[in-house]
Structure formats: structure tokens, C-alpha cells
Specification:
Elements (H helix, E strand, L loop, with lengths): L1 H25 L9 E5 L6 E7 L4 E3 L6 E6 L5 E5 L1
Antiparallel strand pairs: 1-2, 3-4, 4-5
């Protein structure tokens, strides 16, 4: 049964490494310093490509024109707060 345990441990290690690699690619490991180059408007759901922006910066929806302040949490997640 120990070979099954080793196999499971190897799989779990591989999954953990894959998750870490994905977090590095996405920028999540940067936390609140993470930058974004696109956003979906929380008001009208329009996709907005944008030059790089980060925590505390202003962005405007190109479709509805509403202004937002970008808030990036310690886990690197973006939330847009309406001005």
C-alpha cells in the first residue's frame, strides 16, 4: 500500500506545483501590487482592454463611460469601486 501512498503524494506535489506556476503566471503572487491590462465593467459587463493599472488607479469603461477605482486585495484579486 505504500506505493499507492507515494503515487498519491507525487500527484499532490505535482498539483501544488502546477497551482504555484499558475499563480505566478497570473500575477496572484504579487498580491496588492498585481497589475491588470483588462477588466469587465461591473455595471454594463463590457470587456475593456486597458493599459496596465493597479491598486488605487482610476479606470473608465469604454462602453458606458463610468469611472472606477481599482482595488487589488492581498491575494491579487481585482475589485472595481464606482467613483
Amino acid at each position: 500500500m505504500s506505493s499507492g501512498s507515494n503515487s498519491r503524494a507525487d500527484i499532490m506535489q505535482h498539483i501544488t506545483e502546477a497551482e504555484e506556476d499558475e499563480a505566478k503566471k497570473s500575477g496572484e503572487h504579487l498580491g496588492s501590487k498585481r497589475k491588470f491590462d483588462e477588466f469587465e465593467c461591473p455595471t454594463c459587463s463590457a470587456y475593456n482592454p486597458h493599459e496596465a493599472f493597479g491598486n488605487g488607479e482610476d479606470v473608465h469603461c469604454a462602453y458606458c463611460g463610468l469611472p472606477f477605482v481599482a482595488e487589488v486585495d492581498d491575494e491579487g484579486r481585482l475589485k472595481l469601486r464606482e467613483h
